Amino acid sequence: MAQRAAPRADLDRRLRELEQELVNLGRMVEKAIARSLRALAERDLEESRQVIAEDDYIDAKRFEIEDQCIDIIATHQPVARDLRLITAILHIDSELERIGDYAEGIAKISLMMGDEPPLKPLIDIPRMGEKASSMVRRSLEALVNRDTVGALQVGSDDDEIDALYDQVYHELILFMLRDPQSIQRATYLLWVSHDLERVADRATNIAERVVYLVTGKMTEVNIHKH
User: Tens of pLDDT along 151-198?
Assistant: First the structure.
């Protein structure tokens, strides 16, 4: 008969699996952001509907991870360092689900736009999306590697997102002032850029939680964060 794993080894295995599930959720969220922006640019309304429908999978994965955290606490006796990791996972799990909501929000904006082309060529908004997605991915890599330097870099990158957001905001306000008939179409793009700015803020929150996990100190990794 196979020997049962020792309680500590069993707990370590479950925590590793839990981290991997969190990384998988991060990949789902990254994919949702990319798809929502591609659908927006290409005016692919069916793809936008798919992104909205598949947000249910992201929500389900979030609650599955949460249930696993609770089960580990109930069935094992995690010590302080384990509890810090479980708490970090619960926090990051929630942040990722909210990022998924922003991807869903962009898809809904695309549906509101209907068959209309975007007011202007999408240049800065896709750049914001790529940068924000990269921040999400690297914040989770920092978690897996317990990399505080990488986490701090994610925080500093948020400044670039904020600068792009300000650029898009001012450009769209000028469109509105010059042509009041463009207000509705400009507003749609403002909402999209705001959602991406919030994605970056959530990635920064994840990075802060990584620093806390490793050092035991809650530190703002970007003092300019909104």
Answer: 999 999 999 999 999 999 999 999 899 999 889 999 999 999 999 999
Convert the pLDDT of each residue in 72-87 to its tens digit.
Answer: 999 998 898 899 999 9
Q: Give the span between the Cα atoms of 182 and 174, in whole angstroms.
A: 10
Cα separation, 226 vs 220, in Å, equals 12
Residue ranges of the domains in the chain? 7-215
Burial label for 1, CB within 10 Å (0-12, 13-18, 19+), is exposed
What class is the 7-215 domain? mainly alpha
Buried-exposed string 102-138: b where 16+ CB fall within 10 A, e elsewhere? bbbbbbbbbeebeeeebbbebebbbbbbebbbebbbb
Chain-centroid distance, C-alpha 128: 13
Q: Which two tokens stand for residue 91?
A: 């926090």
pTM value? Answer: 0.91
Q: How far is CA 48 from the centre of its chain?
A: 18
| Start-to-end Cα distance in the chain | 57
